Amino acid sequence: MRNKNSFMSKLAVLSVSLVLTSAGSINGALPLIQSGLKISNTEMELLSTAPALSVVIFVLLSAVLADWIGIKKTIALGLLLVGIAGGAPMLLQNYPVILASRFILGAGFGLINSLAVSIINVLFDREPNTKATLQGFRGSAENVGNATLTIIAGVLLAMNWHMSFAIYLIAFPILLVFWIFAPEVNPHSNDEQDSQPGSLFNLSPTVWIMAIFALLLVMIFTALSVRFSSMAVAIKGANYNASNILAAMPIIGIITGSFFGLLNKWTGKGCLYIGIGLLIIANLLVGFSGDNFSMLLIGYVISGIPGSLIFPFIYNSLSLYVSKKRMAFATSLILIGCNLGNFLSPFGMKIAQVVSGTTGLGAPFPVFSIVLVGIGIVFYFQDRVMTKRAAMSETSVK
C-alpha cells in the first residue's frame, strides 16, 4: 500500500476536487451555442443545469458503488466519465446528444463528490490535524479549479464554442495521477468496532442536522450571490457591472480554506460558530444596506469567508458521528442538502420576503440571520447532549 502521508498521495487525493465545481465553467459559451445550434433560451440553460440533476442521483449511488467496487475505483470511474462526457461536445453538433453528455458529466461529478470528502476522512481517521488541514485544502481546490477552468474556457472560446469543452480533458491527467499515487482505501476496516448497527439510514441526529444546515447554508449563499448583482445595479445604476466582484469571491474562499486546518487546531468547534457568526453579520449588512453600496459590498465580501470554515468543519466532523462504513452515505446526505439548497434558493427568498412583510431586494437577509441564530443554538445544545452521552458512556465503562 502506498504511503498515504507522502506529498504525491495527498496531491492525488486533493486533485480530484479540481473538477467538481466546473459544471458552469462553460457558461460563457452558452450564447454562441444557442446561436450555433438554433436552440431556445430554456434549452440553452439546460446545458448548464442538467449536470445538477444527475449529481443528486449519482451522489446517492456512489455510496452503494463504493461499497461494491471500492472508493478508489469509484472515483476513477467518475473521472473517466467527466473526461469522456465532458469533452464530448468538442465533436458533437446535435443538441439532444450534447444534453445527454452533460447529464453523464453530472453522473461523473456525482460519483466523485461525496467520496472526495470521505476518502480523506477514512484515510486520516486517526490523524485529526492532517484530516482537518486536507479538508480545508480540498475546499480551496474546488475554488481554484472553478476559477482556473472558467478562465481557460473563456480563452478557448476565442477559437469556437466547441473548444470550451476541452477544459474537461483535464480529468484524464488527474485520473492518471490519482490511480498511480492514491492509496487503496478500505472503508470496512475496523467494522467490528462499528457502534451503529443496522440500516445506513440509522445515523446520529447530528448528521441529519448537518444535512439540513448544509441545505440552508447553500440556499443563503446562492441568495446572496444572486441578489448582490441586482442590489448593486439598483444602487449604482443600470450600467454597473458586478462581474469583477463576483469573480474575486472564490479567492476569498481559497485563502480562508488554506487556513482552516490551523484555525480548527486552535479553535476546534469555534470554527463552526465563527462561520455562523460571520454569515449572520454578512446577512445583516446586506439586508440593511439600503442605498449604501459600501455596506452592501462589505457584507458580500464577508459572506465569502464562512463557507470555507463551515463546510470543511462539517466534513471533518463526520467521522465523530458515523463509522467508516457509513461515511460515504453520510457525506452524500450532506451533498444532497447542498444541491437541494441551490435549487430551493428562489423559494427560500420568496418565503423570507413574505415573513418580512416587504418586497425589497434585501428583505430576505435579516430573516436568514434569525434562521442562522436558531441553527447555532440547535448545534450548541446538540453538542452538549452528545458530550454528556460520551461522558456517561466513559463513566459506565469505568
Automatic annotation (TrEMBL):
PROSITE patterns: MFS. GO terms for molecular function: transmembrane transporter activity. GO terms for cellular component: plasma membrane. InterPro entries: MFS (IPR011701), MFS_dom (IPR020846), MFS_Efflux_Transporters (IPR050189), MFS_trans_sf (IPR036259). It is a multi-pass membrane protein. The chain crosses the membrane at residues 47-68, 75-92, 104-124, 144-159, 165-182, 203-225, 245-263, 270-289, 295-315, 327-349, 361-381. This is MFS transporter. It comes from Lentilactobacillus rapi. The lineage of its organism: Bacteria, Bacillati, Bacillota, Bacilli, Lactobacillales.
